[in-house]
Amino acid sequence: MAIRLNARAFGRGAAGVGLALALAAGTTLLTDTAAHAQTVTTGSVDFTGDPGDHISLGQPHGFSTAAQDQLTVHTSDDHSEVTVSVRGAHGGWWNLDFSGPNGTALTARTYPGAVRPVYAGPSDSGLEIGGDGRGCDTLTGSFTVTNAVFGPHGYVQAFDAGYEQHCGGVAPALRGEIHIANPPAPAELGLGVGLAVTGTAGPLDGKATVQGTVTCNKAVPVSVTGQVTQVAHKTLIRGSYSTTVNCTPGAPVAWTAQADPTGTTPFQKGDVAVVVDAGAVDPDYQVAVSDTKTVTVSLRKG
């Protein structure tokens, strides 16, 4: 029987403030590079094993949120893998990993012929239970999912499964159950940015002042950045701007910013092309969200 020490860490629109706004729908979710594990609200992990099982040592083990043990859970974006970490209130740490074949989402069914995920082929199911410094180099097993409800960005609302694992392919087995119940997944952050179709060109400092609104469905600080571009008398004039505004749900929140021309030619009365980008981090999922517009703005003398 091949045995290893398990040191693998867990984790594998709108009116607004008297402005004539040019609004366009569309919120962009930037790449989710660090979907985070969530703390389980209500859950339990229980397992025991036959005499000779290397992982359980033939003894029962039980952990639950009711007993103040800490359980955290995460699923992959395609919901094909669920990983659970257990930290006992009185000691003990365990990791559980369940994955479906061919990158398919885990659903209520039995997954036979499971192997350790690191050795799983495209058509194999994956299973791995280990902890307290003990793990299997190779294993065989199966698990049955009775309930699986997922949300966006690695959110697990419910996951219930029973499992059986044979370390190193030997007869003694580890058997157990896992039950996880969390509140329904929070809504994803919705973010919108609007840009007024009129602005001002400062007669003294040559800066272009632009303004607009941001809208959101969660209270978040929003970074508003962009660039103003103008061609006047065959001269290209450009300048960048940035500001931060605290967005609150319910009504558009106004923002104003000034673009300082990069050269010696000031912004002048007339049309300019304005790019505006609003960005924020979803506080529930820790992913970046943005909305971008490009609008022709008419500058008047300030």
If you compute it from the alpha carbons, what radius of gyration comes out, rounded to the nearest whole angstrom? 28 Å
Number of helices: 0
Report helical residue fraction: under 10%
- Total strands: the figure is 23
Shape: elongated
What does the main sheet amount to? Answer: 7 strands, mixed, barrel
Q: What count of domains describes the coordinates?
A: 2
- In angstroms, what separates the terminal alpha carbons? 81 Å
Order of helices and strands: EEEEEEEEEEEEEEEEEEEEEEE
The overall pLDDT average reads 89
What structural class do helix, strand and pairing data support? mainly beta
Q: Could you give the order of strands across the largest sheet?
A: 17-18-21-20-19-22-23
- Uncertain spans: 1-34
**Into which percentage range does the β-strand content fall?**
over 45%
Main features:
single chain; 302 residues; mainly beta; Immunoglobulin-like; 2 domains; seven-stranded mixed barrel; six-stranded antiparallel beta sheet; 56% strand; elongated; disordered N terminus
Task: Outline the structure in words.
The protein has 302 residues and is an all-beta fold. The chain has two domains: 42-181, no CATH class; 191-301, Immunoglobulin-like (Sandwich). The chain contains no helices and 23 strands. It has strands spanning 3-4, 21-23, 28-29, 38-39, 42-49, 61-64, 70-75, 81-87, 93-99, 109-115, 126-131, 135-136, 139-150, 156-167, 174-181, 191-196, 198-201, 208-216, 220-232, 235-247, 253-261, 270-281, 288-301. β13 and β14 (156-167) form a beta hairpin.
